[in-house]
Amino acid sequence: MRAAVIGAGVIGTLHAEILAEKNMLCAVCDIDETKLKKYNCAGFTDYKTMIDTVKPDCVHICTPHYLHAEMVIYALDRGVNVLCEKPLCIKREQIKAIIEAEKRSKAQLGVCLQNRYNKENVFVKEYLKDKNVKCAAAHVAWRRTKEYYNSADWRGKYATEGGGVLINQALHTLDLLQYFAGMPDKITASVSNLTLKDSIEVEDTAVIQSTSGAGISLFASVGCAADMPVVITVKTDNETIQIYPGAVMINGVMAVIEKTTEKPRGKECYGSSHGLLIEDFYKRIAENRRFEIDGEEASKVVRLVLAAYDSGGNETEV
Known about the structure:
Layout: E1 3-6, H1 10-21, E2 25-29, E3 42-44, H2 47-54, E4 58-61, H3 68-76, E5 81-85, H4 92-104, E6 109-112, H5 119-127, E7 133-141, H6 146-150, H7 158-161, H8 171-181, E8 184-192, E9 205-213, E10 216-221, E11 231-236, E12 240-244, E13 247-250, E14 253-254, H9 274-286, H10 295-311, E15 316-317
Parallel strand pairs: 1-2, 1-4, 2-3, 4-5, 5-6, 7-10
Antiparallel strand pairs: 7-11, 8-9, 8-15, 9-10, 11-12, 12-13, 13-14
Helix pairs in contact: 3-4, 4-10, 8-10
């Protein structure tokens, strides 16, 4: 298949690298022409022109958050498969528009929630399939500085990023909570900016607690003094399952998990599973099977995030 990448930043470079290794990369698009020179393929500064000219089998959308929805819909409406970086979108009305575009398109949409492919998370999902999950909780404590937010003008703004720690850094972990425990019906949440008031207008710290339906709890902050490992704890009727990067403990006993052979790519926080997700996405397209992290599935975590932003400390429907 022939694949094109829209957005040649850090995450776009990762996607392009994987596609080039598979001899699939046919075009790259970015508004900054200088970023296109490193690729041995066609380069464009307008994504619509690229799609209409190159007519790729698939586009990988790796642009700032606020651009995802319009690009997803444009590609789907032209019968082009889409693999979109997280988040799927940043507004509720965009969720509806994307899912409607999926329904009228012959193409598939996939979203990069690659942590579902981490060995430890694959193990836990399989382990839980016949168990009653009572609740799941997670702790995300990372550090993001003023310099990080100044590195791109779309970061740290509601209009372009859609929010802060919840929709960016902690989104993968929040997705795993609902993946393991299910979607809550209602949540209460609080968001605040404790350490970056002079740098961003969005939150650097957030707490989510479900109040009805599936039990999930999340603490997330990018105001920590250093990056800490993400820890997820899942409670079943008889077990406490603790998930660490590359390891799982069940009632205090270490579970044996096959070590991943996928090499880390990009930033350390990206993990090493982008390649696994991309491989699965294309395999399912080739076999005419549905990719499991489609618009409906990827919208779950976005709906949780948006409910948290609406909450203001009050119970809110998801």
